[in-house]
Design goal:
Elements: H1 2-12, E1 28-29, E2 39-41, E3 47-53, E4 59-67, E5 72-79, E6 83-88, E7 101-108, E8 122-130, H2 162-174, H3 176-180, H4 193-202, E9 259-261, H5 262-274, H6 286-299, E10 328-330, H7 358-371, H8 378-399, E11 402-406, E12 409-412, H9 415-429, E13 436-437, E14 446-447, H10 448-461, H11 473-489, H12 496-512, E15 529-531, E16 534-536, E17 538-539, E18 544-548, H13 549-566, H14 569-582, E19 602-605, E20 614-615, H15 621-635
Parallel strand pairs: 2-8
Antiparallel strand pairs: 1-3, 3-6, 4-5, 4-7, 7-8, 9-10, 11-12, 13-14, 15-16, 17-18, 18-19, 19-20
Helix pairs in contact: 5-6, 5-7, 5-15, 6-7, 7-8, 7-9, 9-10, 9-11, 10-11, 11-12, 11-13, 12-13, 13-14, 13-15
Length: 637
């Protein structure tokens, strides 16, 4: 593909510090190792690590490889004519044989790693070693969302995770990315009590504050311990109108109650359920944690016909009845509801017009049912799915949250939300195709299989004459992912080829769109907002170019599923371009998919020279979940 060749070549030829005034360009680069792809085949038996140095003369380069199993090895190699290479594991004494794993590779032409003042000498990449079957997909890192309790109930430093998490968390805090973002701590050690407390408050989404309480009794509407916060503790602020001491003037972050959004909870739950079949690096508690999170997600669903939405200060009142989900809950188990402890800022309106959480909640339910069709919570999950579909695909039409695109075909909210909803329906359909769903008053229930077919047809009917749905890359990606998934789950449906035809046309049209050359000094694999036949990456009122990585995750997912359905290599190639960027082929020479398993929210071009130069420490649940979900779809045969 022309984009791939141009983009990757441009990255390799980009040494100019003047173009990246805010970024210390390293004198050593590992980007050749992740171009054209960071994914390496287990069958090769070895992984080649390649790099360059700015000085063309002979000089030693230290190369360190840390694995997702928590061990680390480093050697010195000679750079000649500005290039160096080595093989893992063969060239690294004591290294374990190659297996499905992640390799965090660092290189420096300084005397050692992580010394003060050597950031300009240090570069990093992530390599992903995978096999040809589902059982050979590497276990992805979890420290960002884990509760640090293992399968035997041991906690923290006594847990089975600790020997793996400690070196990976330490490596992250000492690595190039966090140091560029002003977050790094070169002396950090998770085993030090003060650093462990700091990490729980600043580097993880898990709610440790209530982990060890007696959970035989619920905490408000929160029925189980498993709870992923929307962000880390030190982020919360006065936009949240539930201060612990009741005083909004006390703006200490510790004074505001953490919360989760239903969509964030569902996103991470989808990821956890997808990871169940992977060979685990450690005996963690992810299955039980998934069940606890599912219990809390189920508790967020409204089961009464009475409207739970209160009148807002503006006088507006939404109408959410049985099947709809609350927007989220505080760590104390109180729901986020306008007028009773939701946000103080009235501009926050993601709960309006059907919200951006009902579709993703159904996706979380569907993947949970698929993961444990006979589990303890399976009957309640089936009921919740049927009730949610009744709201989204029937009751919501009367409120204007959903619309009929053809007689009998209902489209939920927008292309993205309909895509999320469909992904949950299709996941559930794989294990419960005959689940009865009531979508019309006075008519007999239909099977989930038939409801999926209709919802896929509605997605096709909602496409614009141009062949795409919206100008928004996140929304269209989810519609494409849903259509491609529907073609796999319902292979005998008479409209299967029509679904794929629409999905392919939309994906091809998006992939052909280019960013305005006035915005970009380099081509980019990222997807931006549509602008005529092209795209723009300007976001927000500051008119700065921004790349948002949850969108990358959406397109990894969509194009991977489309490749699986059609066999067309162009979709897989674009996936590898996106993944290369996230794994180190970026102007920062940093791992944006990091050792914690987290992914940064976005990067920006602050000085407007056409090259992104600002990496903000803003690890985010959506980017983390969607990039990993997309990666798992890409690696699945």
């Amino acid at each position: 593909m022309k984009l791939a060749a141009t983009f990757l070549a441009a990255l390799l030829l980009m040494p100019s510090a003047s173009l990246l005034a805010d970024v210390a360009i390293p004198t050593v680069s590992l980007q050749p190792s992740v171009i054209p792809s960071p994914v390496k085949s287990l069958s090769a038996g070895t992984v080649e690590i390649r790099g360059t140095v700015a000085d063309p003369g002979e000089r030693p380069v230290r190369v360190r490889v840390s694995t997702s199993f928590g061990d680390s090895f480093d050697i010195s190699v000679a750079a000649q004519s500005g290039r160096f290479s080595c093989q893992f594991p063969q060239d690294f004494p004591g290294a374990r044989p190659l297996a499905p794993m992640l390799l965090y590779v660092d290189a420096t032409d300084a005397a050692n790693f992580e010394a003060d003042g050597t950031l300009e000498h240090q570069a990093e990449v992530l390599l992903i070693v995978t096999g040809d079957t589902r059982g050979e997909i590497p276990d992805l890192p979890l420290a960002f969302t884990d509760d640090f309790v293992d399968a035997a109930g041991r906690k923290d430093a006594e847990s089975a995770q600790w020997p793996v998490y400690r070196p990976l968390v330490n490596l992250y805090l000492r690595s190039r990315g966090p140091r560029l973002a002003g977050f790094g701590r070169v002396d950090f050690d998770l085993a030090r009590p003060v650093d462990w407390d700091w990490f729980k408050n600043t580097g993880t989404l898990y709610d440790f504050a209530h982990r060890d309480r007696d959970w035989s009794q619920p905490l408000g509407h929160r029925v189980a311990a498993g709870f992923w916060q929307a962000v880390w503790n030190t982020w919360f602020n006065a936009s949240n109108d539930h201060p612990w001491d009741g005083n909004l003037a006390n703006r200490d972050p510790r004074n505001f109650r953490p919360y989760t959004f239903t969509n964030d909870l569902a996103d991470i739950l989808v990821l956890y359920q997808m990871r169940r079949g992977l060979r685990r690096a450690v005996a963690d508690r992810r299955d039980e944690l998934s069940r606890e999170a599912l219990a809390n997600l189920l508790a967020l669903q409204h089961r009464s016909s009475k409207n739970f939405a209160l009148r807002e200060k503006s006088g507006r009142q939404e109408r959410y009845t049985a099947g709809a989900f609350h927007y989220g809950m505080f760590t104390t188990g109180e729901w986020l509801t306008e007028g009773t402890g939701w946000f103080a800022n009235p501009e926050f309106g993601d709960h309006r017009q059907g919200g951006v959480f009902n579709g993703r909640a159904v996706w979380g339910l569907g993947e949970s049912l698929k993961a444990e069709p006979d589990g303890k919570l399976a009957p309640q999950t089936r009921q919740a799915i049927a009730l949610a579909l009744q709201f989204c695909l029937h009751d919501a039409v009367q409120q204007g949250y959903a619309r009929e695109v053809k007689p009998g075909l209902v489209f939920w909210r927008d292309a993205g939300e309909h895509g999320y909803l469909l992904l949950g329906m299709l996941a559930a359909c794989e294990v419960a195709p005959d689940l009865p769903v009531s979508l019309a008053n006075g008519k007999s229930p239909r099977t989930l299989r038939d409801a999926c077919g209709d919802a896929l047809d509605a997605c096709v009917a909602a496409v614009q004459p141009s062949g795409v749905w919206t100008p928004y890359p996140d929304q269209d990606a989810m519609a494409i992912a849903a259509l491609a998934t529907g073609a796999r789950v319902l292979p005998q449906h008479p409209h299967r080829e029509a679904w794929l035809k629409v999905a392919r046309f939309a994906a091809d049209d998006w992939m052909a769109a280019k960013a305005d050359s006035a915005e970009r000094a380099l081509p980019t694999p990222h997807f931006g907002f549509r602008k005529g036949r092209g795209m723009t990456h300007f976001m927000g009122d500051d008119h700065r170019v921004r790349f948002t990585f949850y969108v990358d995750g959406h397109w990894l997912h969509a194009l991977a599923k489309l490749h699986n359905a059609t066999g067309d290599a162009c979709y897989r190639h674009r996936c590898h371009e996106l993944l290369s960027y996230l794994c180190g082929a970026n102007p920062f020479h940093a791992r944006l998919f990091n050792e914690l398993g987290a992914v940064y929210n976005f990067v920006t071009d602050n000085d407007g020279n056409g090259i992104e130069d600002r990496l903000q420490h803003d690890l985010y649940p959506e980017s983390t979940a969607f990039v990993q979900i997309g990666l798992l779809h890409l690696l699945s045969p």
